[in-house]
Amino acid sequence: MAEAGDGGGLPALPHSRESSNSAGAHQDGGINGRHAVKGKPGVRAKFLTTPKKSANGLPMLASAQGSSPKAAAKKQAGGAGNGHLQPTRLSLADQEVLKDARRKLRALGSGKHGKQQEAQVSQSAPSSNRMLFRVPSRTLSRVSSKSFIFAQEEGEEELKIGNELEEESLPPQLAEPTESELLNVAAKMGMCRTEEAPDMTAHARAPKIKKSSASLTSPSPLGVQFKVFESLLETVKDSAITTNAVVQSLIIPKTARHRSRYIDLLPEKFVDNPTIYVIHTWSCSFVETLTAVQEYVLNLRTNVDDVFVWMDVLCVNQHLDRSPGELPLIREILQGSERVVMLLDRHGAIFSRSWCLWEAMQAQTALGAWDKLVIIAMSWSWDDLLHTFQILDVSRAVTTKEKEATWLLTDLQRNSTVDVRSLNATLKDGMMTGAKREMNRSEKLASINSKRFIVASTAYGFMLFLACRYGEAETIIRQVLRVIDRAPSKEISDKEQAVTIYHLASILKEQGRLPDAERALQDFVNQFRGLQDELYMEGVAYLVEVLYLRKMFTKAEMLTHKTLEDKYKQYGKNHPFVARSLLQLSQISLSQKLYDECEGHAKDVIERLGHYPNGFKTQEMASAYQTLAICTFQGNRTAETKVLCEKALQLCQSNFGVDHPLSMDARALQAEIMIREKRFTEAEDVLQDVFKRRVHAYGQEHHTTLASMGHLSDLYRLVNKKAQGDEMDRLILQIGRVLLKASKIDKFQSLAYITTFLSKREHLLDKAAMFLAKAFTVFKYKLTNDHELVLMTRNQLSEIITKVKRIGADASDHAQRHDNADQYAVAEVMYK
């Protein structure tokens, strides 16, 4: 039998200083029998106490060590040992310690045979400062692959997992407690309602398929063991390298000799039926992709030796082109996996990739698929994905090779009974449901595994945010903050708490609740000033944006200048972070109509980014050209405006797409230039196109869509198309009434636009007064009396009443002087 430290079991670490220095540290125990479980030898563990007392006066329990023959020989050689101890009665304090230890061992070893596995305790003389426990080997195998000790320090008892047990008969591999076992423990302690663990370990593994049964030219039906998956993190350490680059520089060269799959290079013991199928994009960082999967698996707290991951870069032959003939096999692999993990990259490229959308759809249509799909956000930034999720369209998704996108779409349509638009809705709903189911699973163990619950709940809140269901997202994120407050500080880092506060601020800003967003961001800045990384810089920039939207220009400008100094030191003068601060300064100046100052900052941004690699591909560069175009437009420099606007539009469409918000803003500015040049027909075509694209992406109730409708209404009245103008006004009012009836705080930005639109159109004053009165009531009921929306609507309503009184008085006076029936009618309407 192999002994500890000889490679047959777990290595024995050196004794702790406290136990090795105690007088009785090397004495042999008084219990030498073994506890047999179904014919298997037991494990003998000693729990030693020292004369040191804890803060509450109870004796402190020190390290635990085994008593293998080698260890016993070492002790005898050391000269320690005064014979066996005789059992004696313990003091009340010692008995309390033993009762507590017995309770913990019972909890750790409880299961179907809970009472049978209870630790047997022998009471030894207090003078020897020694207490001996005999724990069945089955219990140890259920608890940990490492040994355990009890320690009591400063009056607080803590269970420590160590590697100090010298064993004689531990199995070769012992697993960490699975989530099923933790759930059993929690149920017996009254911490949750069920003892059924809804996780991967609940299902029996399918029989392994022999590798030789699968052709090297087709995707492998097997996955790689998680340990192999983790080892790739040690091979590739540069987080800037994309998955595509790793395939070209690592996977293909390693498999070139036999033109095989990477999985074919692994020994058979490292491959098995996949438990996790990974959906990801090759344009994302390879290290970030592996790290996201690693964190997900570790948060499950399952035995990682039983986790096998299927990932295309490892399981598909990279020397050959993909073919439609492999789709049935991929579908079978997907539906046979216990979890399908979808990794959402920072910029939302996954929502535009044909393979990723096809795979996600297969995960949803499988039996029990609503429980399969797990959503993981790889970035703390949510705003960057908001647009790409809204415009998700399987018919417009792309692949590296166009023919693949064609037959993937054909397969989707052939296996579906709905049209493409319904497919898009189904896909979005499926991702939402998958995130919610994962949160529900993790909630059952939130008191034990708070980290997993926080991650899963954040992912569900993220999906609600992308679907513009901000009220529900706020509820989830506030719940996450409460869990973070209750969780042990060692489990949750400061950065994780900072990310959650940042997410809450993002939700509040999108709702139009700027004062609340400002308070959240101010807390973020004050609490996490020491982070000094991208997250902190982004949080400060977000706070600046909220401040100038609230027209607090001086405060926003001072904070931006202070942030610039920190960014200069940390990133250099040409970094996009620096350019963003300069761009914010230009926008602050633009809001105050300081056009010369605004133009100077915008030109500075363009110059700095021109020296930065790929600077022309950043949103900051496109925004700088657009800001310059607005400055020149306000200065009546139309020729310069046209050139700058065309440049901004070109950058936006080539880098972010024709449907991106920046592209739509640039096109709307082009329409304004056309109107100034009296090119009304062209301007109408452009505004119609912008309106249709925004309806397709965001729907009619979105505030940007309503803005497009307002622009069209003004243009129709300018060119005497009264019927079209009236129709557009009617549509705006109709949407407004629907929003008032729903009274959803998520739509308050849209309501605010409608009240502003009505208050500034005199031909709508007769309808505006009543609408604004209702809007004021809704805002006041849902928000505080001093909220900006409440104050704004009150001022607008007051102005409208003043205008109506004036118009009514003028009409009445004119009617009396000239006996004009029409003016009497106008006066009547105004007074009503």
Layout of strands and helices, then pairs:
Blueprint: H1 17-21, E1 43-53, E2 59-66, H2 69-77, H3 92-109, E3 120-122, E4 130-135, H4 137-143, E5 147-153, E6 156-162, H5 179-188, E7 223-225, H6 226-235, H7 243-254, E8 271-272, E9 276-279, H8 286-300, E10 308-310, H9 312-315, H10 327-336, E11 339-344, H11 354-365, E12 373-377, H12 383-390, H13 402-414, H14 420-443, H15 450-466, H16 470-486, H17 494-510, H18 514-527, H19 534-549, H20 553-571, H21 576-591, H22 595-610, H23 619-634, H24 638-656, H25 661-676, H26 680-698, H27 703-718, H28 722-742, H29 748-759, H30 765-782, H31 788-818, H32 821-831
Parallel strand pairs: 9-10, 9-11, 11-12
Antiparallel strand pairs: 1-2, 1-4, 3-4, 5-6, 7-8, 7-10
Helix pairs in contact: 6-8, 11-13, 11-14, 14-15, 15-16, 16-17, 17-18, 17-19, 18-19, 19-20, 19-21, 20-21, 21-22, 21-23, 22-23, 23-24, 23-25, 24-25, 25-26, 26-27, 27-28, 27-29, 28-29, 29-30, 29-31, 30-31, 31-32
